[in-house]
């Protein structure tokens, strides 16, 4: 496990750049603004790692395998803060969220992005969107604040290409508010083992308390 203060070292995907906003270098993507984020004169929008687990994973230099242009299934899209950045650099991006209120905002975000497809669905029930999501997805991104995060990852393995990637942020408190986060993470990793080979993990605490970032590939 890398420490949580490591400098960024892995390559960023095409369409994600470090640019200067207010004198500070930050990740950014190019697209319509969504959540009041700073935008520079070239249309690049700052990607706030403090509001995005995937942003934190990139900021910490995790090797996500993202290159830009890939197909993405994003579970736990909420109102679209992170998935809007993903759709800025990725190809077809399917965004699953089960709470109706944020999905209303997400639909608005998708109006400016014709590669973003919001799905009001429960990520624990992948059969309910299997008729919409294409097979052989390049990247499964997970940020579902729910108990049973590993089970959700295993159930959604069916969509991933054999050489695809799982990029997962595990929230310890969603599994058990009383347990030690490291114990929760060990249990999640053990359950993932039935379907995934672990490539990298890193604590995201610099940006998100008691979260673990995971990069894995299908077995
Ligand atoms: C931490 S928030 C996601 C934030 C978002 N990924 C972002 O960075 O902009 C977690 C989201 O997961 C959603 N969620 C929890 N369980 C879910 C499930 N079973 N299916 C779909 N969405 C779920 C919640 O409604 C919530 O919006």
UniProtKB/TrEMBL annotation:
It comes from the Archaea. It holds the Pfam family Fibrillarin. One of its GO terms (biological process) is tRNA processing. HAMAP family: RNA_methyltransf_FlpA (MF_00351). NCBIfam families: PRK04266.1-2, PRK04266.1-4. Belongs to the methyltransferase superfamily. Fibrillarin family. This is Fibrillarin-like rRNA/tRNA 2'-O-methyltransferase.
């Amino acid at each position: 496990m890398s420490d949580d203060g490591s400098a960024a070292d892995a390559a960023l995907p095409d369409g994600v750049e470090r640019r200067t906003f207010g004198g500070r270098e930050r990740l950014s993507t190019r697209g319509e603004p969504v959540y009041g984020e700073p935008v520079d004169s070239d249309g690049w929008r700052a990607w706030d790692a403090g509001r995005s687990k995937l942003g934190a994973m990139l900021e910490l230099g995790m090797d996500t395998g993202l290159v830009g242009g890939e197909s993405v299934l994003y579970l736990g899209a909420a109102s679209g803060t992170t998935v809007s950045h993903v759709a800025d650099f990725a190809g077809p991006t399917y965004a699953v969220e089960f709470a109706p209120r944020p999905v209303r905002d997400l639909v608005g975000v998708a109006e400016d992005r014709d590669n973003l497809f919001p799905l009001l669905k429960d990520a624990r029930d992948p059969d309910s969107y299997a008729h919409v999501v294409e097979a052989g997805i390049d990247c499964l991104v997970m940020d579902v604040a729910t108990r049973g995060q590993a089970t959700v990852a295993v159930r959604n393995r069916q969509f991933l290409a054999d050489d695809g990637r799982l990029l997962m942020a595990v929230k310890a408190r969603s599994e058990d508010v009383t347990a030690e986060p490291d114990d929760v993470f060990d249990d999640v990793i053990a359950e993932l083992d039935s379907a995934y080979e672990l490539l990298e993990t890193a604590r995201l605490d610099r940006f998100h308390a008691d979260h673990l970032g995971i990069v894995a590939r299908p077995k």
